[in-house]
Design a protein that fits this description.
Length: about 170
């Protein structure tokens, strides 16, 4: 079994802080130069799992993994003639942790990950098209940004052009 290579950012503590600020909704206050350009080249999964759907972190993680697996399978059936596209190695994972700004009954579990991008086994289907289709089958609390893209997909729609610690225009 190959040893895992860690995600190499220029300043890991700063990346963690920027990510926390980004997912907590305060990323707009950060200068664009603070974004980590290296993260742009990896697939990013972001989730804000409602606490009423997952009372503890392990349940939140399980719900997330099951949702991503099911959505990937349905997208592969739809676009790739059932060929299962390889999922990239997870290089960095943050969470799940409770949102520090919402310590109440309405709080959410925050999760973000960067995964190594692998070629899809889908012929002429682009990464953007595959992940857009995949998000059609995901709950609203999960968003995906494909590697090399600034576009974030949520439930099959373009959510926004991302300007956070993980992606830069």
């Amino acid at each position: 079994m190959a040893a895992r290579r860690p995600f190499h950012a220029t300043r890991p503590p700063a990346l963690l802080l920027l990510t926390c600020l980004a997912v907590c909704g305060r990323a707009q206050a950060l200068p664009e130069a603070a974004a980590t350009a290296e993260a742009f080249y990896y697939d990013q999964v972001s989730a804000r799992i409602p606490r009423d759907e997952a009372p503890i972190a392990s349940v939140a993680m399980a719900r997330l993994i099951i949702a991503l697996h099911s959505a990937r399978k349905l997208a592969a059936q739809s676009l790739c003639n059932g060929n299962w596209p390889a999922a990239g190695e997870t290089l960095q994972r943050i969470g799940p942790f409770l949102s520090p700004t919402q310590m109440s009954e309405d709080s959410v579990w925050i999760y973000q990950s960067l995964q190594r991008a692998h070629p899809l086994a889908c012929g002429q289907v682009s990464r953007a098209r595959f992940f857009q289709e995949m998000t059609r089958h995901l709950p609203a609390w999960i968003s995906i940004r494909p590697a090399g893209q600034t576009t974030v997909f949520n439930q099959g729609a373009v959510q926004a052009r991302q300007r956070t610690a993980f992606a830069r225009r």
